[in-house]
Amino acid sequence: MDKRQKKQMQFSVIYLLIALIMAWVFQSLIYRPMVIRWSEVPYSEFLAKLEAGEVAEVQVTQDRLLYELLPEMEGGQGRVYNVVRVDDPDLIERLVDAGVSFSGEAPPNALFPLLLGWVIPLLPLALIGYIGLRRMGQAGAGVMSISKSRAKEIEGERTGIGFRDVGGADEASVELKEIIDFLTDPERFTRLGAKLPKGVLLVGPPGTGKTLLAKATAGEANVPFFSISGSDFVEMFVGVGAARVRDLFEQAKAKAPCIVFIDEIDALGQSRATAGSLGSNDEREQTLNQLLSEMDGFAPNIGVVIMAATNRPEILDKALLRAGRFDRQIQVGLPTEQGRRQILAIHAQKVKLAPDADLNRIARMTAGFSGADLANIVNEAALLAVRHDHDSVTMMDFDLAIERIVAGLQRRMRLKPEVKRRVAYHEAGHALVAYLQPDTDPVHKVSIVPTAKGALGYTLQMPDEDTYLLSKQELEEHLAVMLGGRGAELLVFNDTSTGASNDLERASDMARRMVTEFGMSEVLGPVRYANPAGTGYLGQMNGLRQDLSPDTARLVDQETRKVLDAAQDQALALLESRIDGLHKLAEILLEHEVISGDEIARVIGPVEALVESEEPAPAPA
Ligand code: ADP
Ligand code: MG
Ligand code: ZN
Q1: Which among 164, 310, 514, 516 could bridge 530 via Cys, Cβ 3.0 to 4.6 Å?
Q2: Is 138's pLDDT higher than 70?
Q3: How far is the CA of 206 from the centre of ligand 1 (A)?
Q4: Could you tell me if 377 and 281 lie in one domain?
Q5: What are phi and psi of 604, to 5 degrees?
Q6: Looking at the 3D structure of the chain, how many domains does it have?
Q7: Is residue 574 a contact partner of residue 433, using CB atoms and an 8 Å limit?
Q8: Which range of residues forms the domain containing residue 441?
């Protein structure tokens, strides 16, 4: 049960108590006096009065006798006596003998207090109980018919949030623009027969603004936003989650164009394999199946776009990522320095900044912070300003706030300047070596923003086309790129660091395969030295065939080493030839944290002229 549900439960319990107290007060104030007027007497006393001729009138009901005495008698004045009707076969005879008027109808003045005393106080009670149950139903824990009541609650929110409220997510925004175009004018797409993806998965570390982006997309397209969180489903009774998904889609289809957002979809869409067989969650699976069938069930042109967010895409059930489902993924990474500045500016709008509060400086100090962390910093700084009686939020408040949040996020990295410098050169090295070898995949982006997975930076290469096979030369160039990071560190700092260990692992692995699987070593020749694919097991350390002589094994090592040495020499030579370029790239990275492939081209200049210097480049036209 989440906080909201708990609150609602408390809410209805409080109301139940109030209703009970009300009923009790009602009983004692209104009903009781009537009981006094309406005294209960024993049957024997009634008979005595009857025989004495003091009874004026009797009303006989199913199980009671109500009578009044003659007005002149003691206790007569309009008082109604109430007698439990005993099984007396002579009753009618006695009444006739006594000559009193009697009737068999239920007396209205006896029903009235009954009504007043019991039914009316019970009414609010019943009503409140009903509302309480309905609320619980809506929150997902109820047993009553959830379907309709829940659907009413999810009217579809008008978020009122736009991309102006999201900082540092330009790339994601561009990708989402198409979705917005589709939602604002679905006809335009369907007329041409274009199909838009039904599902868009936002992938990124926590707090990077995935939920915010989804809302902003709805806001920009000005369509209703239906949202539900995967974790809501976890505690539900079997069947409730599936019913809710059904309702959600029913509502959404009625309100199309609109966006359906499933937050934290990993809680729901965890693959059966990773979920673990123990405690297998039928409810989760049912809900997931319902979601899948709903997604398949509607036509792509009705104008419902399903967005989902996760920070663990790798554990998602593959069924979710199949074509026609969440087949488009948008990465929402940690913000760059510029992004952080934007995010800080957005959140600082809500507070009063002192003139010395320098958002640029704060952005520079907060590498690795998420949007949520930055929002938190602004808020924390404002709180500190209040506590220190400042008129506005000063730089000192920000510094303290950052310190406090860093302390809370120890596991996250805040890089020291010298570490950042090394990372910048390392990544610039990869990028430059890649750029200087035109046959390798072009560099798309280089970043020194630490990733959530712990990498300090990365160089992203994107193939122009699918590669089916690689030549020896291409593999060698690839190796040079892998070793380019380490090479740059060697050139500039005259030593290496642990940052290159992953590069080395990948490079060694590839070099070894060149030698043992691809027959690319002249010394060892076209022989396979590696185990047949799929037969290696842990005991066989290096995956070499068992029947190799120790000498051959040593030779394999030597040849692998030779391939790697050559690649490193190539990387160093390339870097040395363009050392100015390396410094420039590193500087840009230090300043902006990211650099695009186009910018690299601009900074370094054309390649042909320099690498193939033996063949003079054709004179420019
Ligand atoms: P996620 O869904 O990725 O975990 P959220 O969208 O819930 O992150 O972000 C939480 C809060 O952090 C947002 O409400 C917002 O205040 C702030 N935030 C996160 N990213 C950004 C951003 N890019 N721009 C502005 N604010 C952000
Ligand atoms: Mg979120
Ligand atoms: Zn590297």
Answers
A1: 516
A2: no
A3: 9
A4: no
A5: -90, -30
A6: 3
A7: yes
A8: 417-614
